[in-house]
Every structure is written in structure tokens, then in C-alpha cells.
């Protein structure tokens, strides 16, 4: 190559690098300014680990931010089973008897197992069973969900994802997750850096490039849920009126949902969920077909920093003292 051609090629490469850098800067500013229907309620973890997760990959999903706003908005009226926002609620004393009120009979048989109970979509209120458990998570949530399309559960999951005291691994199937929920995770990752809040997500396939068909989770290491139920309106038979299946627009697939408290099953299932998640992360690192969260930044994103400063300021001793005085009046 002649010197002149080399000079032209060098200038062209420099121009491309400048354009790429400018585009990345614009993308970062846009992510910081983006309004999402969820935000952190607690400051990020006080430490960083830049090697914790895989390198970022680009998203080609079609849904818009308006779709994310719609699907992840808090419900106008929070149902009784959803205790999101109540710090006194947790799973530390959970037993299967807590879910008896969501069955058609509102009671179990006298010889029912204390370790596992099987619920039926179309007969039992599976939607509220799932909300009851997930909204009470305070420690960890390991989840792999094939179908992920339930607005109220989406909102609960995102609030937990932005709580640094809750460790979360979210695994979604590539063939099912190319829509609004994948975009919500990516938008949240760009705006807040989910890894800084102890949340890691992966979207992909099984180790042999088949669908990731698992439908279950382990909550706080105490409760497991697994079955044929996808998180969707018809998958859960969402519309339930006065404890009975039915109501306008009611649809229910033939599905089962088991809830398990047996310690051995919980340990084995949680291990499997972690293994499935790490398989997808490993494929992503090798350039395979998966999408994972951004690496943990050593500095906060602008959006996270603003919320972090506001929360820290609100919890200073003088501010808390003033708030107590005001409440006492």
C-alpha cells in the first residue's frame, strides 16, 4: 500500500473512532435522561467489582420505551397479596399454609404434605400465589422463566432488582425474551447498572442451543416454585373474582404450579438455576447468542448517582431527627 493510501486509511479509521465515541456518549446521555417506571429505593452497594459480569453486548430488540413504561408500571390498585413497599413482610416464617386461602377450597386436606403443594391454574388463584411469594423476597431470588409477560409481577421483579440487599439472577429464554421485558432489563442496566444493585440477568439458550424451558424460582433460599405455568394472563388464569376463577376476559391454560419448602429440593433446584444462568453467561463471553448485563462500572451512572445522593442526604442524622419531630407534631 502506498504512503498516500495509508494516510487516507488512517484518517478514515480516526473518523470512524470519533463517530463511534460520539455515538456512545450520546447513548450514555440518553440512558441517563430516560424516564423509567421504576427507580432504586436504596443506594447501591458500597463496593465495586469490575470483573463480576460479562462484557456488554448490543441489543436489537424492537419494543419502545413506551412499551417498557406500560408493562412495568405499578398497578393502579395494589392487590392484597402484593406487599411490595411493606418492610415488615418477608418469607422467614413462611409455610405452605400461608397459601391455603388462594385455593378453591381455601383450605388443605388434613393429610396434605407440609413440604410441597400442587396448585392448578383455572381452579386455584395462581397469580396471587406468585405475587404473595415474590413480593416478600428480602434476601435472594434465583429465577429462570420461559414465558415472562405479567405486568404486576414484572413491576415487583424490577423493584427487587433495584434493591442492593437482594441478590438476583434472572434467566430468560432467547426465543421468548426478544420483546419488552428484555428491553426493560437492558434500559435499566444502561440507566442504573443493575450489577451495582447485585442483580445479574442473562438471556439465551440451553447448553446445546435448545430453548431454556425452565419455569421456576427459589426465593430467599426458603421457598421454591416450579411447574408448567408461564408468567402471563392465560398462563396463570389471572382474573379471579371473589376467590373463584372467572370474570370479564378470563382465560386459563391447563397449567400446574408447585410450591416447595423441602430443603433438599430447594438446594438442588437453586444449584440448577445458577448452573443454567452461568451457561448462558459463558456462551455470551465466547461471542455466542446471548445477552447479559453490563459490567459493573467503577463509577455510578448519572441517574444512579443522583438517586444515591438524594437517598444518602435524606438519611443523615439531622434530616432524620427533623423528620421525627415533624411526625411527632
Q: Can you give a write-up of this model?
A:
The chain has 329 residues and is α+β, with helices and mostly antiparallel strands. It has nine helices and ten strands. The strands form two sheets. The chain has an eight-stranded mixed sheet with strand order 1-9-6-5-2-3-4-10, sandwiched between helices. A two-stranded antiparallel ribbon has the order 7-8. A hairpin with a 2-residue loop joins strand 7 (240-241) and strand 8. Helix 1 (3-33) crosses helix 5 and helix 2 (65-71) packs across helix 5 (180-192). The longest helix is centred in the first third of the chain and has 31 residues, at 3-33.
Q: Show unreliable segments.
A: 48-59, 288-292
Query: Into which percent range does the helicity of residues fall?
Result: 25-40%
Class based on secondary structure composition and strand pairing = alpha+beta
Number of helices: 9
What global shape is seen?
globular
Number of strands: 10
Our Rg estimate from Cα atoms comes to 22 Å
Q: Separation of termini? A: 82 Å
- Written as H for each helix and E for each strand, in order along the chain, the element string is HHEHEHEHEEEHEEEHEHH
Strand order of the largest sheet: 1-9-6-5-2-3-4-10
| Major beta sheet summary | 8 strands, mixed
Strand content: 5-15%
Mean pLDDT: 76
Entry summary:
With 329 residues, the chain is an alpha+beta fold.
Amino acid at each position: 500500500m502506498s504512503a498516500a493510501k495509508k494516510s487516507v486509511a488512517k484518517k478514515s479509521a480516526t473518523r470512524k473512532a470519533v463517530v463511534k465515541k460520539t455515538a456512545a456518549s450520546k447513548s450514555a446521555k440518553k440512558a441517563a435522561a430516560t424516564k423509567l417506571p421504576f427507580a432504586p429505593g436504596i443506594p447501591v452497594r458500597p463496593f465495586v467489582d469490575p470483573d463480576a459480569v460479562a462484557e456488554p453486548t448490543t441489543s436489537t430488540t424492537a419494543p419502545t420505551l413506551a412499551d417498557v413504561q406500560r408493562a412495568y408500571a405499578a398497578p393502579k390498585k395494589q392487590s392484597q397479596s402484593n406487599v411490595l413497599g411493606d418492610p415488615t413482610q418477608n418469607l422467614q416464617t413462611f409455610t405452605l399454609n400461608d397459601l391455603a386461602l388462594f385455593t378453591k377450597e381455601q383450605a388443605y386436606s388434613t393429610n396434605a404434605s407440609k413440604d410441597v403443594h400442587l396448585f392448578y391454574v383455572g381452579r386455584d388463584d395462581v397469580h396471587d400465589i406468585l405475587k404473595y411469594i415474590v413480593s416478600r423476597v428480602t434476601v435472594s431470588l434465583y429465577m429462570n422463566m420461559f414465558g415472562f409477560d405479567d405486568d404486576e409481577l414484572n413491576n415487583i421483579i424490577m423493584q427487587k432488582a433495584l434493591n442492593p440487599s437482594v441478590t438476583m439472577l434472572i434467566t430468560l429464554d432467547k426465543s421468548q425474551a426478544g420483546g419488552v421485558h428484555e428491553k426493560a432489563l437492558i434500559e435499566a442496566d444502561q440507566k442504573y447498572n443493575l450489577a451495582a444493585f447485585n442483580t445479574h440477568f442473562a438471556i439465551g439458550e440451553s447448553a446445546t442451543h435448545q430453548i431454556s424451558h425452565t419455569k421456576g424460582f427459589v426465593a430467599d433460599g426458603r421457598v421454591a416454585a416450579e411447574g408448567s405455568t408461564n408468567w402471563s394472563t392465560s398462563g396463570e388464569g389471572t382474573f379471579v373474582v371473589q376467590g373463584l376463577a372467572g370474570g370479564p376476559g378470563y382465560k386459563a391454560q391447563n397449567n400446574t404450579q408447585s410450591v416447595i419448602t423441602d430443603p433438599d429440593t430447594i438446594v438442588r433446584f437453586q444449584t440448577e438455576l445458577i448452573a443454567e444462568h452461568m451457561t448462558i453467561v459463558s456462551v455470551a463471553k465466547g461471542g455466542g447468542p446471548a445477552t447479559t448485563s453490563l459490567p459493573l462500572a467503577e463509577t455510578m451512572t448519572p441517574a444512579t448517582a443522583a438517586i444515591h445522593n438524594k437517598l444518602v442526604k435524606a438519611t443523615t442524622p439531622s434530616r432524620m431527627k427533623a423528620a421525627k419531630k415533624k411526625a411527632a407534631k
